[in-house]
Amino acid sequence: YYYEVSGTKDVEAFQKQYQVPFDILLDKKRQVKNQFAIFTIPTTIVIDKKGQVTEKHQGPIDQTWLKQHFG
Fold first, then answer.
1. Who contacts 23 (Cβ-Cβ below 8 Å, separation ≥6)?
2. C-alpha distances in angstroms, 26 versus 5, 68, 69, 70, 71?
3. Which sign does the torsion angle of CA 57, 63, 65, 66 carry?
């Protein structure tokens, strides 16, 4: 989830700079924010192939967190 403050170009630059291997959602209408009760930015939500939420982490994540959850 990313609430767009600075624009799509900033998100794309961030994703490229840090080689983020997953999609970052731009929730312009705040639909996801409301659906998942997101009150903290950043919030990371991991959704499995079946569409089930497997993790919800409020606050920043780091490389250690990513390795623990994605190998």
1. none
2. 10, 25, 22, 22, 25
3. positive
Segment 5-44, tens digit of pLDDT:
567 788 888 888 888 888 887 787 888 888 888 888 788 8
Show Cβ contacts of residue 40 under 8 Å, excluding neighbours closer than 6 positions: 58, 59
Within 1-71, strands assigned E span: 43-47, 53-58
d(CA 38, CA 68): 22
pTM for the structure as a whole: 0.62
